[in-house]
Amino acid sequence: KFKNHYSLLMVDESWFHLTKDKIKSMLIEDIDVLIHPKVHHKSHIEKIMFLVVIARPMKIVFEGKERDFDGKVGVMPCAEECVTRRASKHGPAGARIQINKSVDSDFYRSLFAETGGVFDLIEEKLPWLKGKEHYIQQDGARPHAAEGAVEDLALAGSSDEWHLVIVTQPPNSPDLNLCDLGFFSSLKLSLIHI
Q1: Which of 5, 86, 162, 178 has a CA positioned 20 to 30 A from the CA of residue 188?
Q2: Element (H, E) at 163
Q3: Which H helix or E strand runs over 165?
Q4: How many Cα atoms sit within 13 Å of 123 on the Cβ side?
Q5: β-strands 47-55, 8-17: how paired?
């Protein structure tokens, strides 16, 4: 049976390299060029992981107004803020920096449930789902599908007005996540050409 996926959100994370090994650029007069970070060796290119939430683009009438929703819900870095203890290339002692965080089940839940997280983005960008059952599809990685993690996440996102169902994508399923199908590759290509 065909499903229109109007109430389905897809969540996935991916690594993005912050730079490339070799970049050629043409300098034109009167145009400022940002200094590209140097790479000492191509095996030490810094990278960061982002959690992406997307939905189906649609036109919808909500509260008497027609809205044009582009499908983008949010892109969040999988990083945490910390304070440096001593001066380094990141700045003086006491500077606030973001460091990569490995995604475990507690951190994954915090990306959803904390203020400004995925649940807040859904409430802000998709208010027409209020009072209706909506689905979040995720892959079956261990931090996402650990024992009790799916139920815990569904409870954190559900309230009197929001009815959330977490769907874990089975392995080798033809029901692929849109992030994997094209969103990540299009972002990585655009980052290369910027």
Answers
A1: 5
A2: strand 163-168
A3: strand 163-168
A4: 14
A5: antiparallel
Confidence of residue 53 (pLDDT cuts 50, 70, 90): very high
- Give me the residue label for tokens 């090994």: 21
CB atoms closer than 10 angstroms to residue 82: 12
Q: How far apart, in Å, are the Cα atoms of 8 and each of 69, 71, 81, 136, 146? A: 14, 11, 31, 6, 22
Q: How confident is the model at residue 194 (pLDDT cuts 50, 70, 90)?
A: very low
Candidates 40, 47, 49; CA nearest to 19 is 47
The CA-based angle 108-110-115, given to 5 degrees, is: 140
Say whether 84 sits in a helix, a strand or coil: coil
> Quick check: 48 pLDDT over 50?
yes
Where helices occur in 69-166 by DSSP H, the ranges are 105-113, 118-125, 142-145, 149-157
Rounded Cα–Cα distance for residues 55 and 149 (Å): 22
**Strands of 32-140, DSSP E:** 47-55, 58-62, 65-69, 72-77, 79-83, 96-100, 133-138
The answer to whether the Cα torsion of 113, 9, 151, 140 is positive or negative is: negative
Residue among 55, 66, 183, 70 nearest 118 (CA): 55
Angle at 107 between CA 104 and CA 109, to 5 degrees: 105
